[in-house]
Amino acid sequence: MIGAQWGDEGKGKITDLLSKSADVVVRYQGGVNAGHTVVVDGQTFKLHLIPSGILYPDTECVIGSGTVIDPGSLIQELDTLERLNVSTEKLYISETAHVTMPYHRLIDQASEEKRGSKKIGTTKRGIGPTYADKSERTGIRVVDLMDYDALREQLEWTIQYKNGILEKLYGLDPLDPKAVLDEYIQYAERLRPHVIDSSLHVYKAIQQRQNVLFEGAQGTLLDLDHGTYPYVTSSNPVAGGACIGAGIGPTVVDRVIGVAKAYTTRVGEGPFPTELHCDVGSLLCERGAEFGTTTGRQRRCGWFDAVIGRYAVRINGLDCLAITKLDVLDDVDEIKVCVAYDLDGETRKELPGSARQFARCQPVYETLPGWNTSTSDCRSLDDLPKQALDYLKFLAELMKVPIAIVSLGASRDQTIIVEDPIHGPKRALLQEGNSQKSPSRVG
Ligand code: IMP
User: Fold this and answer.
1) How much distance in Å is there from the Cα of 269 to the middle of ligand 1?
2) End-to-end Cα, the chain, rounded Å
3) Is residue 4 over pLDDT 60?
4) Is residue 439 over pLDDT 80?
């Protein structure tokens, strides 16, 4: 299950729904930059690194090797869940995931400040610098954290090197290697019972014919390789990232489910063609409670962008989509959908590779009537006002992908299951057009 936009698509709720049928849920990339808000029985859970599957007592949760782990933060999440009587016994952490250290967070913050107007708008959680060290082959992995001598040896050299950067480049105070070592040794002891060979664990689950759900964080447009570079995160949220980040082969993946909001949001810097700077934008922000779970920043809001939607269908090989927050559009008189871009007078149906060109793209809209009535109590497609159903059909036809789930609020029951997202269609919300794997499928 992946995000089909710029993150914050409401994946937490959809993972929560899908986790019911999953024996194992695996997070395969990203770190505490992500944030899921899940509401169960009126209780709100905010999770960053731990998959929302943890709320089901029989579901195993795995934090895969493609993630980056900030141990202090992870322990806080564990403590919160335990306080709420949620068992964390079945949480497993990959021994080969990389660890976020204090210097990663400091460098993330300082480098963003130094960039000035060229900043990325990161979450300042040290994500980029942790992945940079991984690529530079100077990173510290969970296995190193578990081995006192290895950790001390590695930190001696690394902190000396990082202190040079902190002091000389950013004018910050140096870190004390002994204090960092002591802090991280404590973390290691708390996390040790959860550490495993996660790729092997997932492999065995698949061999035993268990259902495994791979949960992407962030979204397709924030992908390091396929997103709107450089305004992206430092990992691969796309479906292909699941293979690398969880350590599985592509042949074991049965279905790819995308999640998209009924409109678009983006947090952080970077071009956003359908962004609204008017009252409608404020309405979407207010009704959709569009504030980041991790940083509390107000999200930028705009109309649905089908150019990006089609791109996400292609890059991830989506079988179906979950459309979230349809109810947020309830009071909008007219709804626009971006069907193409105008780039310097030329109509473009595909995302340009160049960030400068993307910044010049103007949306080409089609306008649909709103429904001006509440949808939050609708529980089947038949309950939806005609205009809302037409809107969904329009999106499905534009993107040539069936809509399997429609979400109309934060609670588990505010959901319409159009077709079984895991085992395929009962009834596709699409008259013509096809999912990628079933070219002959019609509504
Ligand atoms: P980083 O992942 O903290 O390095 O931030 C890079 C970009 O990704 C920034 O624009 C962030 O706002 C964005 N970002 C990172 N995580 C999320 C997320 O979970 N939801 C939405 N945007 C995110």
Assistant:
1) 9
2) 23
3) yes
4) no
